[in-house]
Write a structure and sequence with these properties.
By secondary structure, this protein is an alpha+beta fold. 31% of the residues lie in helices and 19% in strands. The strands form four sheets. The protein has a four-stranded antiparallel sheet with strand order 7-14-9-12. It has a four-stranded antiparallel sheet with strand order 8-13-10-11, with no helix packed on it. The longest helix is centred in the last third of the chain and has 24 residues. The chain is elongated, with a radius of gyration of 29 Å.
Length: 324
């Protein structure tokens, strides 16, 4: 449970003599607008790091962990058919059959926004390279500032994203405190993870993905991801993704070169020259009825292009002056 003080005030470990021996010395005074207990929202079964006593008549707004998840998490914390997805991912990547890979791709495409934006031609290779990871409550997936080397899709569980200080840089290190007189030999206070990693920015659950910047740019992690409860993840390592993408790009280049070689006046050119020409072309898809060029007007955005119809058909029309 997390609380926000509406009126009144409270002490985090009150200084009253009768409480000092049991609860310790005063650490902080909380007043209207202050909040505390947020760690309980983010991790299960964690010990409180301090005691709180009302110093006077106090009113508080209280938010339970269950309500917090309903407000900020998705309706379901697991991917549809996640048990089957987990089962397929635990098969050695080299031993997955074509039918199993097709099934895995179909399941992930239904629920993962990352897979929905991918070129369908990459689904098979990515499902072959993906691996499975199970983590426990309070486990750290990665820490802010680390070099990204993997991308994740949440199959089951709830995770929290934290950012502290400047995104992309390691969280500021907590300074070690010298023990005060009388504190020698006392058990160290449990670590407050929100103090170490920063406040919770987002809650992740089934079907959501994170860490994609590591795949695309190899950037340092912009935040820290913690498991709120037992979680199961699909993992795609950057090395595998790079290899898949490079292979895909090579295949596409081969298809473009083969297409250009079948065009008049280009069939005599060398493969190397056709490859350079292919790099200069951009693929453009037109819907039915789209006007690409209009008679009497300059070219698109002032640029002059040469167009080659790869698939489909283009209708060319011209105005004619009809004499009476």
């Amino acid at each position: 449970i997390s609380e926000t003080i509406y009126s009144g005030q409270g002490d985090r470990i009150v200084p009253a003599e009768k409480w000092a021996e049991v609860l310790g010395s005063k650490k902080q005074t909380l007043q209207g607008g202050d909040s505390f207990g947020d760690r309980a929202l983010l991790q299960k079964n964690t010990l409180r790091t301090a005691s709180c006593i009302a110093a006077e008549k106090t009113e508080m707004m209280v938010l339970s962990q269950a309500d917090f998840k309903k407000l900020f998490a998705k309706d379901s914390n697991e991917v549809e058919g996640f048990e089957r997805v987990a089962e397929l991912l635990q098969i050695d990547s080299g031993a997955r059959s074509k039918n199993q890979l097709d099934e895995l791709a179909q399941l992930l495409t239904k629920t993962s926004s990352f897979f929905q934006t991918l070129d369908p031609g990459l689904h098979y290779d990515i499902c072959q390279a993906a691996s499975y990871k199970r983590l426990q409550s309070n486990d750290v997936v990665f820490v802010q500032g680390e070099v990204g080397d993997a991308f994740y899709v949440v199959l089951r569980g709830t995770l929290s994203l934290h950012i502290k200080g400047t995104p992309g840089l390691p969280p500021p290190k907590k300074e070690a405190k010298e023990p005060q007189p009388g504190e020698e030999g006392l058990e160290e206070e449990p670590e407050d993870l929100t103090e170490v990693y920063g406040p919770c920015i987002s809650v992740l659950s089934g079907g959501q993905s994170f860490g994609e910047l590591a795949l695309l740019h190899g950037m340092p992690r912009t935040g820290t991801v913690l498991c709120q409860d037992e979680s199961e993840l699909l993992v795609l390592w950057k090395a595998n993704y790079d290899e898949i993408l490079q292979t895909s790009q090579a295949r596409e280049l081969e298809r473009q070169v083969a297409f250009l070689r079948n065009l008049p006046n280009l069939d005599k050119l060398s493969t190397g020259r056709l490859m350079r020409i292919a790099y200069c072309f951009q693929l453009k898809e037109l819907s039915r009825g789209y006007t690409l060029l209009q008679e009497g007007r300059t070219s698109e955005k002032g640029h002059v292009y040469v167009y080659i119809v790869k698939e489909g058909a283009i209708k060319m029309v011209r105005r004619t002056n009809m004499k009476k």
